[in-house]
Design goal:
single chain, alpha/beta, TIM Barrel, two-stranded antiparallel sheet, globular
Length: about 425
């Protein structure tokens, strides 16, 4: 995994806006309504091509497929795995929203009516590996000939699957997440073998506190988080840590978030996970202050951070200077080479419920790229001279924009 050795690189959490026609197909597929499978596959291929192109145009260095084929970043596995035929109950009302019932009804009702959350009522296993192959081939085709620093693909973690798809079969939570880890290991390995960085989405390690386990004590929840990380590490054991990134968040809803567990409580457990890169919320009004946590908890030398510098629930376009200030602040604590600019969460975690207007999403990503350029100039300078950032002086190499073709692109061009 590339570090920001010559300038601040940019990326995002994963999900991006889908074309309206594809959203309609995803909605029909989700609810079991008739849809044209061949037309769906063609629409997905086209959408992946388009979303890769848009990311490049916006200045995103480490890009992906926008999670284009998925209705929801966590529940898509129900269509790939067996064992999910139980009648699930809608149990995802966050505790912070329940303190404000009118808001909860307004925000959650559409989600409940559009997303299927079946329970696990049998042994988890594979029933359709072809979908994974299609996702990989679509992304390979889209990045062929595209200049990008790196390419990643996201996948649901065992813990977040257990959060959204309740257990009605295994004896307890631990047995359930370990069973999921054994099965999801195949998907993670397939992504890695394709040459992509694997991002595992782990909101369970933060959001799970006020959704799945709102009545647990902090100590009890941290024990659950530890179990989830141990299962995750098992699932990722075949992949080098520097080919892995983890995303954690407290939910992507425009909600109060006053019940969010603090980053400082969960970070020590997050640092025990295999992935080298940690993507997390850093821009919204409830978590922006937590950059200072890294003053108290030292970032291990093998880790890098991807703090959110864009709020994924607001239609306000961040000023590039603000983005730069956020990046410089993190760099001053953990080192510039250990920071990659990111987003708080996805801009289309549920394809049918994007809070941010699609055109504003792209404008936000452009603002992030511009902010990263401003931060890079401050952190590296333009001539390799000695630059002082917050009282710390260091030799700064000249800025050189260096990009590498993705392995899939190199293979194609050599034919």
């Amino acid at each position: 995994m590339k570090r920001s050795t010559e300038r601040i690189l940019t990326t995002h959490t994963g999900s991006l806006p889908r074309p309206p026609a594809l959203v309609e197909m995803l909605a029909a597929k989700e609810l079991g309504k008739p849809y044209d499978g061949a037309a769906f596959d063609a629409e997905v291929r086209s959408a992946v091509q388009g979303v890769v192109r848009k990311q490049v145009e916006c200045g995103v260095d480490v890009l992906n497929d926008g999670e284009t084929s998925k209705m929801l970043y966590s529940t898509y596995v129900k269509d790939r795995l067996s064992g999910f035929d139980g009648d699930g109950t809608f149990n995802l009302a966050p505790a912070d929203m329940m303190d404000f019932p009118d808001l909860a009804r307004r925000v959650m009702q559409g989600f409940a009516n559009a997303i299927k959350l079946p329970a696990c009522n049998g042994p988890v296993g594979w029933k359709d590996r072809e979908v994974v192959r299609k996702d990989i081939e679509n992304l390979k085709a889209a990045v062929a000939g595209v200049q990008a620093a790196e390419v990643f693909m996201s996948a649901a973690s065992p813990g977040v699957i257990a959060l959204f798809l309740p257990n009605q079969f295994y004896r307890n939570h631990e047995e359930y997440v370990w069973a999921l880890a054994d099965v999801m290991k195949d998907e993670y390995n397939a992504i890695d073998k394709a040459g992509f960085v694997v991002q595992v989405d782990c909101p369970d390690l933060a959001m799970g506190r006020h959704i799945q386990f709102p009545n647990a004590t902090t100590k009890e929840f941290l024990r659950i988080a530890q179990i989830n990380v141990e299962a995750l590490n098992h699932a990722l054991s075949d992949i080098p840590p520097d080919r892995l990134r983890i995303h954690l968040c407290w939910g992507n809803a425009e909600s109060p978030h006053h019940r969010d567990i603090p980053l400082k409580e969960i970070l020590p457990i997050i640092l025990k996970s295999r992935p080298s890169a940690i993507s997390f919320v850093g821009a919204n009004a409830r978590h922006e202050h937590e950059w200072s946590v890294f003053k108290e908890i030292k970032l291990p030398a093998e880790k890098i951070i991807i703090p959110g510098v864009l709020d994924s629930t607001s239609n306000i376009i961040e000023h590039p200077e603000l983005v730069a200030q956020r990046l410089v602040r993190y760099a001053g604590v953990v080192g510039r080479e250990n920071v990659i600019a990111g987003t708080d969460c996805g801009f289309g975690t549920a394809a049918i419920m994007s809070t941010v207007d699609p055109k504003i999403t792209w404008a936000k990503l452009q603002a992030m790229a511009e902010g990263a350029r401003i931060a890079s100039k401050e952190l590296w300078g333009s001539t390799g001279r000695r630059v002082t950032v917050r009282g710390v002086a260091a030799r700064r190499p000249a800025v050189r924009k260096t990009v590498a073709r993705h392995p899939a692109a190199r293979r194609r061009s050599s034919r």
